[in-house]
TrEMBL record:
Enzyme Commission (EC) number: 4.1.1.48
Top-level division of the source organism's lineage: Eukaryota
Primary enzyme class: lyase
Protein's UniProt keywords contain Amino-acid biosynthesis: yes
Annotated Pfam families: IGPS
A single GO molecular function term of this UniProt record: phosphoribosylanthranilate isomerase activity
Protein name: indole-3-glycerol-phosphate synthase
InterPro entries: Aldolase_TIM, Indole-3-glycerol_P_synth, Indole-3-glycerol_P_synth_dom, Indole-3-GlycerolPSynthase_CS, RibuloseP-bd_barrel
Keywords: Amino-acid biosynthesis, Aromatic amino acid biosynthesis, Decarboxylase, Lyase, Tryptophan biosynthesis
Span of domain Indole-3-glycerol phosphate synthase: 137-400
A GO biological process held by the record: L-tryptophan biosynthetic process
Keyword Nucleotide-binding: no
Length: 408
């Protein structure tokens, strides 16, 4: 295999970029799950605009770094940390290529780190470009990557797995949506407990998550969505836990920017019944892997899409029960509810009906005409937060949203 990979690189051939991935090495106990944060001890070859190839595992060579127009020699023979950082960077580049091939424009983390160019036995570190988030979603994801890394240091995965023994049993999130739709003939409501958003700021100053959740349940919500992101939405996992411990019967969706399987276990321990996965952030393999983990833990998964390409990707994944269509462009934060109709037309809509997938309409829904519009497009559930939580009585806001009382 190594001979085959090496033979594809000619010392006389100049080319822009090629990345070769070795057979997957067994995961070490301290490594994070494959594929998104996989770190293998096997070499990943990367050659950019140069002849030959550089192997991250070849520590016997003396390499040089070009920085600020100066050539500074350094040895990697005894610098295992440098070697590891190079491998981490190589894996990140590989992950970025996979994501890009699937139309994912959101980068998992800033493109910083070890040399951006390999040229034979020399390494050249160039000025990093693009270290500023392109949009708000990318900024959130970059922050989440740092946040989760710190949380994982304080609460390791094996500790969370032990905590599952005392976690409350999961409720049937999908079943609750189906039952509500059958009872009312209207899209089942997933009412969102949400204090703030990046685009609107603080939505409710007098914010008591338990009281809001109780009002939603009394007003006829089938399920609840609880924001857990702290920096941008003023939410927390403590809010999720408090709502669950308050005796709320509605199944709970953990509304989080999931980038690591660790977050799924943490949400389960805190009382979640379902998890949000965002196709604009997660490659297909990640979504498949996380769905398997969720099923193992008894959690439902709401996979969110924003455009036709994301919808096609998700429809190609087995085990999908819920698809959320977000009418908000997460890069510009502009809202257009016609996006729902566009994504449910033709073959896509027919495939959804054949698979009996529940489509959840998200964002831009404020009144009965909005709800009616997305229902006619094929939506059987709606996720609404802003237009409800801003009401003095969020429960009565539900009746205004649907134009009638849908409480039991």
């Amino acid at each position: 295999m190594e001979r085959l990979m090496s033979s594809s690189i000619s010392s006389k051939t100049h080319f822009k970029s090629s990345i070769f991935v070795p057979p997957i090495a067994p995961l070490e106990p301290k490594r994070v799950w494959f594929p998104q944060t996989w770190l293998s001890k096997s070499p990943v070859r990367c050659s950019l605009m140069g002849s030959g190839s550089a192997d991250a595992g070849e520590a016997s060579e003396i390499k040089k770094v070009e920085s600020n127009d100066e050539i500074v020699p350094f040895s990697t023979a005894s610098d295992s940390d440098s070697t590891l950082k190079i491998k981490e960077w190589e894996v990140q580049r590989f992950q970025d290529e996979i994501a890009s091939s699937q139309g994912i424009r959101i980068r998992r983390r800033p493109p910083t780190g070890p040399p951006l160019h390999y040229v034979g036995p020399f390494e050249f570190r160039l000025q990093n470009e693009g270290n500023t988030p392109r949009n708000i979603l990318e900024e959130i994801v970059w922050n989440k990557d740092k946040e989760v890394s710190k949380l994982k240091e304080r609460k390791q995965l094996y500790t969370l797995k032990k905590g599952l023994e005392n976690a409350p049993p999961t409720r049937d999130f999908v079943g609750a949506l189906r039952a509500s739709y059958a009872r009312t003939g209207l899209p089942a409501l997933i009412a969102e407990v949400k204090k703030a958003s990046p685009s609107r700021g603080v939505l409710r100053e007098n914010f008591n998550p338990v009281e809001i959740a109780q009002a939603y349940e009394k007003g006829g919500a089938a399920c609840l969505s609880v924001l857990t992101d702290e920096k941008y939405f003023k939410g927390s996992f403590e809010n999720l836990e408090a709502i669950r411990n308050a005796g709320i019967k509605c199944p709970l969706l953990c509304k989080e920017f999931v980038i690591d399987a660790w977050q799924i276990y943490y949400a389960r321990v805190k009382g979640a019944d379902a998890i949000l996965l965002i196709a604009a952030v997660l490659p297909d393999l990640d979504i498949k892997y996380m769905i398997k983990i969720c099923k193992m833990l008894g959690l439902a998964t709401l996979v969110e899409v924003h455009d036709e390409r994301e919808m096609d990707r998700v429809l190609g994944i087995d085990g999908i029960e819920l698809i959320g269509i977000n009418n908000r462009n997460l890069e510009t934060f502009e809202v257009d509810i016609s996006n729902t109709q566009k994504l449910l037309e033709g073959v896509r809509g027919e495939m959804i009906r054949q698979k009996d997938i529940i489509v959840v309409g998200e964002s831009g829904l404020f009144n009965p005409s909005d709800v009616s519009y997305v229902q006619e497009a094929g939506v059987r559930s709606v996720l609404v937060g802003e237009s409800l939580v801003k009401q003095n009585d969020p429960g009565k806001g539900i009746a205004s949203l649907f134009g009638k009382d849908i409480s039991l």
